[in-house]
């Protein structure tokens, strides 16, 4: 299985000083990922061309579509003549970082699971658990009782804890009852979706102030300002008086911008991206430099051999899943505590895409925590490209998801691609 | 009560069929996690087929004939009149039902083709089947939504006209007046139902028999238990696994279309509300056996049906909505199938009948 590649590396690769950079196993893995990315984007381009021709969109539109798939991050609109303009766009870059933030966390979650030989498809459920916990905490503690920065920290850790608990459930089932973690995760995902819908449905956190926002939970910041600007606070007081006081005491819980908003003006980016990157680095060191990391990898390579070597495999599995859950949930905490994001609470029919997108992020990064940072940036860049495609052409943003799913499909047989690359290299060597 | 039975069938039957789809793949040794994705794809292709055919106006005449006859009993004064179906009208009615079957067949075909992607990756390239299935689950909604936006310029694709009127069987078609008495049995099984539901039941029975009582079925099951042993007896494991996966895709694709037709208001929205994953739960709960799956689908269908209509469900006809008075939140009913599956899994994981070789790529050299 492809996820074991990294774990087996030291065994399969003898320490040969003569081995060149291009023939290293790690390099081949990166090359395989790049091949997957290129094929995915080509597939997207082919669909753009095919749809363009069958719908008679004309050559210019098709060409624009393809250019936006590859360079949408730099697109800044159309000029007076209607041609696409490409230039450095700080708000696009900032938004790319902002969107990468939760993806880094769910990607880390899946990558950590893969290192331990556990396919954590439960990231969406863990993400929802984190969402619910951090939103409930941050919106329930009045800012008259505690300072907002403290509320933020409590809500952040509440989300993390909820995710850890939710992730531990499949872990316990796997370790002690030998239930396939994939099945257990799928079940806990849908249980979470319904549980979260139920919790928010019976809460008083549903956004009642803005008529067009039905189905959403309050933002964690600036509730008070919104109300007074809109001048609707009186009506709120009349219709739901017991709620009005509660709403008035909330707000201003938002991640610090840390100056990033001045670098990337006009974007949503905030300090959360730095927290996410820091956590990725911590996980990297945990996996590569600590006993715990070694035990996790040993369990992933062969659970029973690890037990023979004196590693407590059951505790290890539960703890890995709890950590994976905590990581995915942290993504939700960072995203929803940003202050400018809203949660659509009636989610019982669908699971958050950010959770599932952790899978391609981890696979592209070959389960390397530092690689996750880059692969999630790439994913969020693709999403920005999709948005530009929707704004500027007759196509729509779902082509992004098509490209991502093609990449996931290819990463299912990453090992085969790697073998092809090896053969190709050997073929070249023989010709010399 | 008749309403409950009718609703139960509508929910349980696609669930049953898709769960059997899962069994076909897993019994041949391939984990088909992509049931949800294939359902989404099948639903879209089926709806698109109907949409395109309607656009060409092929069955419009038949629909007009049937609708004209039914109009005889539609108004308030006429609702005790039994509409008179002449030979022409019967022919028109049958051709509409045939159209529905054609759409089902098309959805099945597309589901089978879509499942080839999984089969190719899992069998030829020995890929990780879980990841491959996940890829299809991501690919289907993305592709479908992309094309829906292009074709319909909105978030969903709906069959044109009042589509339920095209395909739904009503008691007026069986020689009863609109307000006439048809009895419990008729009301539950003949009024406001789709022929697709019954076709699925028949198909479920046939496919179960094929899996258990024919040479083909037994050979296929052997490939899911010990492919090397099967190969030593001259069975082509690769072919069998391809067959299992493609049949699985066809059944799931058809199930997806039936879902779209009967419960999703004849439209495709790029999702099937987790039905595919629920079918996966049904399959596990039913321990990979058709008869148990049938029971599990009924149970889970009941939850789904109660969740959809508990506030207006009058079980024994005394005018009291008993379930509503219990005050249990709707989410509990929606959640229960998954909770029960987890609990059952934890108690039965030791005696699970899960195919032994599922998820393991076939390696002829491994004995």
Catalogue the unreliable spans of chain B: none
Structural class of chain A: mainly alpha
Give the rounded overall mean pLDDT of chain B: 87
CATH fold annotation of chain B: ABC transporter involved in vitamin B12 uptake, BtuC
End-to-end Cα distance of chain A:
33 Å
Regarding CATH, which class of chain B?
Answer: Mainly Alpha
How do the helices and strands follow one another from N- to C-terminus of chain B?
A: HHHHHEHHHHHHEHHHH
User: In percent terms, what proportion of residues of chain A is strand?
Assistant: under 5%
> What structural category do the secondary elements of chain B indicate?
mainly alpha
Q: Identify low-pLDDT runs of chain A.
A: 1-17, 222-242
> What number of domains of chain A?
2
How would you describe this protein?
The complex is a heterodimer of chains A (432) and B (367). By secondary structure, chain A is mostly helical. Chain A has 2 domains: 23-88 and 394-432, no CATH class; 91-375, ABC transporter involved in vitamin B12 uptake, BtuC, CATH 1.10.3470. Chain A has helices spanning 5-12, 25-54, 59-71, 90-115, 123-140, 148-177, 181-201, 223-230, 233-239, 241-248, 260-263, 272-289, 291-301, 303-308, 313-336, 353-364, 369-392, 398-411, 414-431, and strands at 75-78, 84-86. Chain A has a two-stranded antiparallel sheet. In chain A, strand 1 (75-78) and strand 2 form a beta hairpin. The two termini of chain A are 33 Å apart. With 367 residues, chain B is mainly α. Chain B has a single domain (2-351), classed as ABC transporter involved in vitamin B12 uptake, BtuC (Orthogonal Bundle). Helices cover 68% and strands 1% of the residues of chain B. Chain B has 15 helices and 2 strands. Chain B has helices at 2-27, 35-56, 60-70, 87-124, 129-152, 163-167, 183-189, 195-213, 215-225, 227-232, 237-262, 275-285, 290-309, 322-326, 330-348; strands at residues 157-158, 267-268. Chain B has a two-stranded antiparallel ribbon. Chain B is globular, with a radius of gyration of 22 Å. Chains A and B meet through helix 7, helix 16 and helix 18 of A and helix 5, helix 12 and helix 15 of B.
């Amino acid at each position: 299985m492809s996820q074991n590649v990294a774990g087996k590396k030291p065994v399969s690769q003898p320490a040969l000083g003569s081995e060149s950079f291009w023939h290293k196993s790690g390099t081949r893995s990166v090359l395989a990922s790049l091949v997957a990315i290129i094929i995915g984007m080509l597939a997207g381009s082919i669909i753009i061309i095919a749809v363009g021709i069958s719908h008679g969109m004309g050559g210019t539109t098709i060409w624009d579509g393809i250019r936006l798939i590859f360079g949408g991050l730099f697109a800044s609109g159309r000029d007076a003549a209607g041609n696409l303009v490409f230039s450095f766009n700080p708000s696009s870059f900032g938004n790319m970082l902002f969107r990468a933030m939760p993806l880094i966390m769910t990607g880390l979650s899946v990558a950590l699971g893969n290192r331990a030989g556990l396919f954590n498809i439960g990231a969406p459920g863990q993400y929802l658990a984190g969402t619910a916990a951090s939103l409930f905490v941050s919106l329930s503690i009045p800012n008259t009782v505690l300072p907002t920065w403290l509320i933020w920290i409590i809500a952040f850790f509440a989300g993390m804890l909820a995710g850890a608990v939710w992730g531990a459930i499949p872990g316990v089932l796997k370790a002690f009852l030998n239930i396939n973690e994939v099945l257990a995760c799928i079940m806990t995902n849908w249980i979470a979706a319904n549980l979260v819908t139920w919790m928010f449905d019976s809460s008083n956190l549903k956004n009642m102030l803005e008529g067009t926002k039905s189905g959403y939970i309050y933002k964690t910041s600036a509730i008070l300002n919104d109300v007074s600007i809109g001048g609707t606070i009186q009506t709120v007081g009349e219709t739901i008086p017991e709620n009005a006081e509660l709403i008035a005491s909330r707000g201003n819980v938002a991640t610090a911008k840390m100056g990033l908003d001045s670098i990337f003006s006009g974007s949503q980016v905030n300090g959360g991206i730095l927290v996410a990157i820091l956590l990725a680095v911590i996980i990297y060191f945990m996996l590569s430099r600590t006993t715990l990391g070694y035990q996790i990898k040993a369990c992933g390579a062969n659970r029973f051999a690890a037990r023979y070597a004196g590693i407590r495999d059951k505790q290890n599995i539960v703890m890995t899943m709890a950590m994976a859950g905590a990581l995915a949930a942290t993504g939700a905490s960072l995203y929803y505590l940003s202050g400018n994001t809203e949660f659509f609470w009636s989610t019982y029919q669908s699971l958050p895409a950010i959770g599932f997108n952790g899978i391609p992020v981890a696979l592209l990064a070959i389960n390397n925590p530092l690689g996750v940072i880059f692969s999630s940036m790439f994913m969020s860049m693709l999403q920005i490209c999709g948005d530009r495609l929707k704004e500027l052409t007759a196509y729509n943003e779902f082509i992004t998801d098509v490209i991502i799913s093609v990449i996931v499909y290819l990463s299912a047989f990453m090992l085969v691609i790697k073998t092809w690359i090896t053969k190709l290299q050997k073929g070249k060597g023989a010709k010399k | 009560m008749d309403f409950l039975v009718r609703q139960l069938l509508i929910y349980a039957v696609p669930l049953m069929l898709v769960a059997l789809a899962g069994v076909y793949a897993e019994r041949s040794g391939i984990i088909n996690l992509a049931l949800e994705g294939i359902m989404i794809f099948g639903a879209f292709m089926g709806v698109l087929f109907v949409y395109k055919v309607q656009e060409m106006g092929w069955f419009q005449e038949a629909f007009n004939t049937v609708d004209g006859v039914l109009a005889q009993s539609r108004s308030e004064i006429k609702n005790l009149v039994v509409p008179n179906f002449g030979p022409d009208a019967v022919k028109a009615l049958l051709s509409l039902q045939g159209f529905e079957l054609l759409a089902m067949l098309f959805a099945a075909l597309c589901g089978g083709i879509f499942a080839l992607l999984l089969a190719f990756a899992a069998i030829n390239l020995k890929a990780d089947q879980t990841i491959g299935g996940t890829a299809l689950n991501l690919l289907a909604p993305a592709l479908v939504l992309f094309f829906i936006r292009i074709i319909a310029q909105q978030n969903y694709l709906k069959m044109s006209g009042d589509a339920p009127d095209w395909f739904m069987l009503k008691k007026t078609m069986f020689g009863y007046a609109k307000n006439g008495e048809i009895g419990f049995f008729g009301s539950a099984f003949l009024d406001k139902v789709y022929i697709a539901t019954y076709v699925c039941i028949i198909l479920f029975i046939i496919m179960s028999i094929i899996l258990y009582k024919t040479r083909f079925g037994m050979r296929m099951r052997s490939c899911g238990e010990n492919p090397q042993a099967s190969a030593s007896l001259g069975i082509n494991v690769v072919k069998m696994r391809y067959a299992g996966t493609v049949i699985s895709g066809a059944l799931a694709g058809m199930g997806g279309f039936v879902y779209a037709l009967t419960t999703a208001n004849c439209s495709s929205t790029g999702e099937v509300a987790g039905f595919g994953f629920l079918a996966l739960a049904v399959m596990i709960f039913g321990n990979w056996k058709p008869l148990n799956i049938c029971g599990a689908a009924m149970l889970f269908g009941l939850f789904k049906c109660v969740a959809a209509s508990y506030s207006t469900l009058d079980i024994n006809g005394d005018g009291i909505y008993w379930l509503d008075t219990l005050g249990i939140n709707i989410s509990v009913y929606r959640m229960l199938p998954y909770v029960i599956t987890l609990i059952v899994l934890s108690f039965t994981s030791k005696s699970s009948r899960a195919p032994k070789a599922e998820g393991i790529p076939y390696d002829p050299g491994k004995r």
